[in-house]
Amino acid sequence: MAITDWPQDERPREKLLLRGAAALSDAELLAIFLRTGIPGKSAVDMARELVNAFGNLTRLFAATHQEFCAFPGLGDAKYAQLQAVLEMARRALSEEIRQTDALNSPAAVRDYLRLALAGKQHEVFCALFLDSRNRVLAVEELFRGTLNQASVYPREVVKRALAHNAAALILAHNHPSGVAEPSHADENLTQALKAALALVDVRVLDHFVIGCGEIISFSERGLL
After folding, report:
1. At what angle do helices 12-19 and 26-34 cross, to 10 degrees?
2. Which of 166, 126, 124 is nearest to 147 (CA)?
3. Which of 193, 181, 168 is nearest to 218 (CA)?
4. Backbone angles phi and psi of 32, in degrees to 5
5. Which tens digit of pLDDT belongs to each residue from 134-167?
6. DSSP character string of the chain
7. Considering the chain, what percentage of its residues have pLDDT values greater than 90?
8. 197 and 163 Cβ atoms separated by less than 8 Å
9. For the whole prediction, is pTM greater than 0.85?
10. How far, in whole angstroms, is CA 132 from its chain's centroid?
11. Is the separation of the CB atoms in 102 and 138 below 8 Å?
C-alpha cells in the first residue's frame, strides 16, 4: 500500500507536522528524508530495511558512499543529501558549543561528539580546546587509527593546546566495536595526557568514549 493511501494522521510527514518530529520512529524520520520508494516498496518500507540492515541510524549515517548506494533506490544524489544534512547538524551543534560554557551545555557537547564520531569504522581521537571560560576555541581530530587503536602522542596534544592558547580541553575518542566501556589502555592514556598537559597549565576536564548509542564520561566515572 502506498503511503498516500494511509490514514492521514499515520503518514510520516503529516504525523510530524501534527505531533512533532520526536513522535516519529527512526524509520518514519528516514522515510521523510527518502521522500519516495521504489516499485513494490514505500519509502517507509525502504527506511525500515535500511535501519535493519545497518542496525541503527548511527551506523547508517557513518556508511560509506559505496555501502549506502548499494541499496536499490539509493544513489549519489541521496548520499549527497544525507551528507549535507549531517554536516549542517554538526555545524549547528559546533556553533552552539562555541557560544557558551562547555561545562554548562554537556548535552550539546555529547550530541556533537556522537554525531562526529559514533559509527565510524576506524578509531578517531579528537580534542575540544577551551579558553579560560570553558568556551570552545577549536575542535580537532588529532589521531586516526585502525579498528583496534589509535596511536596518541602526548607531545602532539600539548603542542596543539599551546597553539590554541588553550586553558583546558575535553578529550574524546570512539570505539568502532560500538561498546563505549573504557579500556585500561584508555585510562592509562588519559592519565598520561593529564600529566603532560599539567606541565603547561592546561587542564583536562573530561574524556568521552563514544560507542554506538552510548557515551561514557571519565569525569562522571571518577576516572580523572
Report:
1. 120
2. 124
3. 181
4. -65, -40
5. 888 998 999 988 655 568 889 999 999 999 999 9
6. --GGGS-GGGSHHHHHHHH-GGGS-HHHHHHHHH---BTTB-HHHHHHHHHHHHSSHHHHHT--HHHHHTSTT--HHHHHHHHHHHHHHHHHHHHHHHSS-GGG-HHHHHHHHHHHHTT-SS-EEEEEEE-TT--EEEEEEEEE--SS-----HHHHHHHHHHTT-SEEEEEEE-TTS--PPPHHHHHHHHHHHHHHHTTT-EEEEEEEE-SS-EEEHHHHT--
7. 34
8. no
9. no
10. 26
11. no
CB of 191 closer than 8 Å to CB of 182: no
pLDDT tens profile 182-215: 989 899 999 999 999 999 999 999 999 998 878 9
91-126 tens-digit pLDDT: 887 777 677 666 666 777 888 888 788 777 788 999
Which residues lie across from 129 on neighbouring strands? 138, 169
